[in-house]
Design goal:
The chain contains eleven helices and seven strands. The chain is an alpha+beta fold. The chain has three domains: 128 residues, Acyl-CoA dehydrogenase/oxidase, N-terminal domain (Butyryl-Coa Dehydrogenase, subunit A, domain 1, Orthogonal Bundle); 100 residues, Butyryl-CoA Dehydrogenase, subunit A, domain 2, CATH 2.40.110.10; 140 residues, Butyryl-CoA Dehydrogenase, subunit A, domain 3, CATH 1.20.140.
């Protein structure tokens, strides 16, 4: 079954060459044949997709954002080709949004290491990724306000000691906990809150430090993570019991993550995952109404037409943002990425809505693929508050001070 943007030649319309298309096709094949059949069980048990990452490693696809001289594929926002990376993510998301989120965390961490790590660190850590298939992730989450009925307090404290730092406390939404071998901890020596809750006065107290997750002082609490969707991201609560992090594992200079706006190059990557959900829903609906012989229904035709337009529009937005990154127009790319993330969120949710209307209630009964897409997308788009994103876009247009990284009001 072929639909718009599921055909190989559709990528040529996005100005992707034959080598880029071949790379995306390899990911698509893995996603369809290997990842998709495992997704339901990983979702049910809320288990990290270890086998999927093993497949990516065996296929030589697990280091896309590392330079070619280190054994990677040389993709990324500062490497001249980010659209290929986003389309790889989209193909993974079509099979499993949770896997795509873990993949994002890994890939985005590699982008950070390539951009900030010393030569000694790059040599040491990149070898582990390329030769051993080591998985990376970056953890910031330290929510400062409790929800009703919540007793746990989140946050870490960081103490400077001889030869490094000691971290005490916990982080929430720690994606890939139990699956990753290394985590980039975004912490604050001024107190709990991580990087997401930093302010202008505390930029110089923000640190990024790599943590070897095999350290016995790092404890994973699996009792906290029981969401309706994105279950297989294994985004558990992680506790640090006076975990020592040596100076040799500190990444970049204090405050670099926010001062240089690194978060902004990952924002459209989230949109690529949303697009994967939309395209999966579109293809599900297309096959369903064809099999059920509902193609003559004018309302079904409307739904199929709108889904097709939504998916194509999302692709074009990502092509636009990618071109800005790839041509070095970084300031424009930062705002455009948030605009794309806002637009694609709504296009994806609208596409799933039209799919449900075209296919009916049966498409939401397990083990329907769409039932999981509906739950996962509903949860994942909460990753940032869309009201704050849109307000930030408005502030940028009005010449007001704005936060393009975490959209703090």
């Amino acid at each position: 079954m072929e639909t718009a943007y599921s055909k190989r030649d559709a990528y040529a319309q996005l100005d992707l060459g034959s080598e880029q298309q071949e790379l995306i096709t390899r990911v698509r094949k893995l996603a369809k044949e290997n990842f998709a059949p495992r997704a339901a069980e990983s979702d049910l048990n809320a288990t990290f997709p270890n086998e999927d990452f093993a497949d990516l490693f065996r296929a030589g696809l697990n280091a896309p954002a590392l330079p070619q001289e280190y054994g990677g594929l040389g993709l990324g926002p500062y490497s001249g080709d980010v659209l290929t990376l986003w389309m790889m993510t989209k193909e993974i998301a079509k099979s499993d949004l949770s896997l795509a989120r873990c993949w994002e965390g890994h890939v985005n961490s590699l982008v950070l290491l390539d951009g900030m790590a010393t030569e000694e660190q790059r040599t040491r850590w990149f070898k582990g990724v390329v030769e051993k298939g080591e998985i990376w992730v970056a953890w910031s989450g330290e929510p400062q306000a409790r929800k009703p009925g919540e007793s746990v307090r989140f946050g870490t404290t960081v103490e400077r000691v001889d030869g490094g730092y000691v971290v005490e406390g916990n982080k929430a939404f720690a994606t890939s906990a139990g699956g990753a071998q290394w985590a980039i901890l975004l912490v604050n020596t001024a107190g709990p809150g991580g990087v997401r809750h930093a302010n202008a006065a505390s930029l110089d107290t923000q640190l990024m430090i790599a943590c070897d997750l095999s350290d016995p002082t790092v404890e994973i609490d699996t009792s906290w993570w029981d969401p309706i969707g994105m279950r297989a991201t294994a985004s558990h609560l992680v506790r640090f019991h006076r975990t020592f992090l040596p100076d040799q594992d500190r990444i970049g200079y204090p405050g670099q993550y926010l001062k240089e706006g690194w978060q902004t190059c990952f924002i459209p990557h989230y949109a690529a995952t949303f697009l994967g959900a939309a395209e999966a829903a579109y293809e599900y609906a297309f096959e369903y109404v064809t099999t059920q012989n509902k193609v003559e229904d004018p309302y079904v035709q409307h739904h199929i037409g709108q889904m097709s337009v939504n998916v194509e529009t999302a692709h074009l937005w990502l092509r636009h943002v990618a071109r800005l990154w790839e041509t070095g127009k970084y300031q424009e790319a930062q705002i455009a990425g948030s605009r794309a993330r806002h637009v694609v969120e709504h296009l994806a949710e609208d596409t799933v809505k039209h799919c449900i209307r075209a296919c009916g209630a049966r498409c939401l009964i397990r083990p329907s693929v769409l039932e999981r897409i509906y739950r996962d997308l509903s949860f994942y788009v909460r990753h940032d508050n869309d009201d704050h994103i849109l307000a930030m876009i408005g502030k940028s247009l009005l010449g007001l001070t704005h936060d393009p990284s975490f959209y703090k009001p």
